[in-house]
Amino acid sequence: MRVSVVGCTAMLLVAVAACGGRGGNETGTTASGPCQGQQTTGITDKSLKLGGIYPLSGPASAYGDIPKGIKAYFDYVNAEKNGIGGRKVEFVVRDDGYQPPKAVEEARRLVEQEQVFALFQTLGTPSTTATWDYTNQHKVPQVFVATGASKWGTDTQHPWTIGWQPNYISEARIYAQYLKKDKPNAKVAVLYQNDDFGKDLLGGFKRAIEGSGITVVGEQSYEVTDPSVDPQMHNLAGSKADVFLNVTTPKFASQALAADAKNTSWNPLHILNNVSASITVLKPVGLENVQGVVSSSYYKDPRDPTWNDDAEMKLYKAKMQQYAPGTDPNVPFFAYGWGVADAFAKTMSAAKCPTREGLRDAMRSLSNVQVGMLLPGVTMNTAAGDGFPIESMQLMKFKGERWELFGDVIDTRKEFGPLTG
């Protein structure tokens, strides 16, 4: 993998100041030359400082594996590729415990004290919702947030914030399309997280099944502070639905899968949303108890032998062992982290100015950008009026000890039309 030089075109390389700004990590530093007046806080000719906010503790701590994959990628490009465009990347990670007020506190600390160039990933719809007013008011890029809420791509008031993964409404449309073909008269029970994440996917699913023979016969929500979803699962089993749509984060996904496995009198088709479709979620339940579960993906599963000879997968596994010793590269959240870090590198490399404004503009003008960890046929595209970098997914089913992809990659833009605000 080759990371190209960031920023100015060849004819501008003679003007060092144009590519490096005035230098340091002073708050409010600005560039000169062709990028005059643009923000260079957190970036110099030799360094690039990013901040990430993740639930390293609390009910969504399983996602704490993601920044480990990101750090391994940045350590690799720093050591072997001279960073991104000659700039060594420093990645500062903060823990918000999946608590929105804490996320705001950490965002302020990263921007005002650490003086990062950009927030690269804030994880979770509640945390990102709590922080995006602040980041946009301060004109700090909030790049590739780790949540599929549809508003990151449809909102026009927060141009400094953008998602990465396919949005929840499009994911819901794919499950609806699958049921329309395979179970056209399905009766569906839904467990969902009682926040913008859960409501976004559930609402998208309900709209997608309108006019079909599919009906939602049971709904139960939970709070992230709940100790268990066993009562909700008991109630949903009473609905006698033949499909169970599991819209949960990892801790509660494992609980719901376990409850489903224990209830031998209820045997629905189990659809698990993408954000919990990790082997770390399934293993505690017992792999024998999750056979046939359906989900979707857009990036390569490191456990899938399909990718054994894939150049990017071989590079990823080798560098994870080198730069993150002791980790298991077969954990999909690590692969996600590696992939989104590579996506950032390619986006930053495409920026016309190595400034906050340059990154903002680059992330909103992606054209068929290929990222090695994405599934074949899945590329990054954004444009005016389309703030969704990735909008293609493929269905998968758990068989044996791994997920198996089936069907074709579905471009939801073409299949269902674009989402609008």
From TrEMBL:
PROSITE patterns: PROKAR_LIPOPROTEIN. InterPro entries: Leu-bd. Residues 1-17 form the signal peptide. Residues 48-399 form the Leucine-binding protein domain. Keywords: Signal. It comes from the Bacteria. This is ABC transporter substrate-binding protein. It comes from Nonomuraea guangzhouensis. The lineage of its organism: Bacteria, Bacillati, Actinomycetota, Actinomycetes, Streptosporangiales.
